[in-house]
Design brief:
Layout: E1 2-6, H1 14-26, E2 31-35, H2 38-47, E3 54-57, E4 62-64, H3 68-92, E5 97-101, E6 108-112, E7 116-119, E8 125-128, E9 134-139, H4 141-149, E10 153-157, E11 160-162, E12 167-168, H5 172-182, E13 187-192, E14 210-211, H6 227-239, E15 244-249, H7 255-260, E16 265-268
Parallel strand pairs: 1-2, 1-13, 2-10, 5-10, 6-11, 13-15, 14-16
Antiparallel strand pairs: 3-4, 3-7, 6-9, 7-8, 11-12, 15-16
Length: 272
């Protein structure tokens, strides 16, 4: 079992990914695909007069400020345009994909954060109380296994559903890590618009090719921006039993095959 997470940044070649997935399924691989859609969400939000805002937690992680209007736009883009666009591309190459948000069937369930402690641009600490964000605490593996057993490819996107039945924005990388652990996946592949974790961002020649899982936390200092969340997700996946996490390039042809061959940052067992 392989869980693939593809980011929503500009430059990622989703068609190449879909074609690669079709080949992998023909080769007998069992897959789950998790995706984002941040770049398109930012565009739509700006067009609708509600431009995106980002906040930084006191621990240094940056995330989207998610008020109710942002959540509505998020659902429109992630669950609608991006999710169904990927499903359409997969269907065109012969993959019987089913698009799901974390809300559907309570696929991704978690707790909405009552407050979020952030640091503003001046270094002052603030508390947000009207944010619709949370973390995944449960995956409906019965639903996923039902789909997989009947030949469907699940294509999953945030948001998740809270215990109280509210949609909540959850981080896609950490959600993918939780899905991989819950399904007892062998590998989690995280594709983005860089070749992996870079020692000196944005110098792609400084790619870190191997990380010992016991020392992954030591590499957080090299993670910039959204890559910090990806490293955190990798740490969580490894801690929960996923044997291997690979940060790889989503801009190239056959990105998953390249990742499986060790092209990227490999954390855990050696590549095949």
């Amino acid at each position: 079992m392989i869980v693939i997470k593809v980011g929503g940044s500009e430059g990622i070649d989703l068609r190449a990914l879909c074609m690669d997935i079709a080949v992998l399924i023909q080769e007998g691989q069992q897959l789950v695909l998790v995706h984002g859609g941040s770049a398109r969400t930012n565009q739509v939000a700006a067009q609708l007069g509600h431009p995106p805002q980002f906040v930084t937690s006191v621990s240094g992680y940056t995330s989207r400020r998610t008020d109710r209007e942002t959540l509505r736009i998020f659902e429109m883009v992630y669950c609608g345009e991006v999710n169904k666009g990927i499903v359409e591309m997969l269907q065109a190459v012969g993959v019987n994909a089913v698009g799901l948000s974390g809300i559907d069937g309570r696929l991704l369930e978690g707790k909405r954060k009552e407050t979020i402690k952030i640091v503003d641009g001046t270094g002052r600490r603030m508390v947000l109380r009207d944010d619709y964000t949370g973390t995944v605490e449960h995956v409906n593996t019965a639903l996923l296994n039902l789909l997989l057993a009947n030949g469907y490819l699940p294509v999953i996107t945030p948001p998740a559903i809270s215990e109280a039945g509210e949609a909540i924005n959850v981080d896609g990388d950490r959600a993918a890590a939780f899905i991989a652990a819950s399904l007892k996946a062998d590998k989690l592949i995280i594709l983005s618009n860089v070749p992996g974790l870079l020692r000196d961002f944005p110098d792609e020649a400084s790619l870190i090719t191997r990380i010992d899982p016991a020392h992954i936390g030591e590499f957080m200092e090299h993670a910039q921006g959204r890559m910090r969340i990806k490293v955190l997700g990798a740490m969580e996946a490894i801690e929960q039993g996923v044997a291997q996490v690979i940060f790889a390039d989503g801009r190239i042809a056959q990105p998953v095959h390249a990742a499986l061959a060790g092209r990227g940052t490999v954390i855990g067992a050696k590549p095949l």
